[in-house]
């Protein structure tokens, strides 16, 4: 908006630094996106820096038309954007310009310093839902017992711990009743913030009663309540991390997206992280990817009519899950497993929401769905054969 071409008299004003002021302003604003919530804040900072630069050159640029046009343009833009004249300004060195509380800005710094553009940061996804089913940062899919408290994530920036309890007597399946998240203090962006959710207590605030961390204007860390008591989102802008927590029925689900370089920033003593390395083999319900369903003599007893105590048969559970999930991927099969194990229809909603969270947070669309090795149809190809053997397996294979 403020770029102005020379009118032939540029050489007469070689001491005027207006061109440098304008170039700096372009550098400050070229990466900004009007769709971002902090656009006005950053744009106003750049305008104030531009104004300071023109003021410093006011004497040597006194007769320069380009200079006077820039001054007028700055005033107009500050009025349009409701910018105050007093306030923070962008750095006077564009190559060092970045917001330390905006992880996406870290890439800008690397680009300026190196002189070459660096690829955008790589993000990873982890999710936990149901009985419980775990999708790791490596896109491995597992079903685990992990009763009690277990760390999902434990690195230099973030700690996430879940507490799981048995869902049905006689079954090794568990579900999540409590989630504790610690956002560790980081520069001037945020003090340490602790969040805790439990069944029937999904607050929209940290344990200290605040809803954010750091300067309230920058919103480097904040909680957004989407559905009161049922669904919250946590946005940690300074570490490029987003967390979704839901309550469905009596249990909680969690989904998180985090930059790979931060996921890998941990000490050797912090290697027990379910999201990073999966569940220990002793805690796996599935055996090498094969997940047994509740059948007589296995996970749960069957009734006289050879139906699971859940009240669902394989056919009715399949039909119920198919109502919400048309694609027969691992989320669909997890839904069937949970219904046959618990009889709780809320697990259908949990599997469906978990898939929605994948679509919202997982960075690679081609990896959203993970399918059984032989395709959806072959898993249930001959139910009578499997039941006669006393077990049924669902084959889950995660893409590397």
Automatic annotation (TrEMBL):
Q: Tell me which domain of life the UniProt entry assigns to the organism this sequence originates from.
A: Eukaryota
Any one of the GO CC terms: plasma membrane
In the UniProt record, does the keyword Membrane occur? yes
Which Gene Ontology terms describe the biological processes this protein takes part in?
BMP signaling pathway; positive regulation of macromolecule metabolic process; regulation of primary metabolic process
Name the Pfam families on file. Answer: RGM_C, RGM_N
* Segments forming domain Repulsive guidance molecule C-terminal: 123-363
The residue ranges of the Repulsive guidance molecule N-terminal domain are: 16-85
Q: How does it sit in the membrane?
A: Lipid-anchor; GPI-anchor
Alphabetical UniProt keywords:
Autocatalytic cleavage, Cell membrane, Disulfide bond, Glycoprotein, GPI-anchor, Lipoprotein, Membrane, Signal
- Respond yes or no to whether keyword Ribonucleoprotein is given for this record: no
Q: Where is the signal peptide?
A: none
Where's it found, cell-wise? Cell membrane
| Molecular function GO terms recorded | coreceptor activity
Identify its protein family: Belongs to the repulsive guidance molecule (RGM) family.
Output this protein's name. RGMB protein
Q: Which gene encodes it?
A: Rgmb
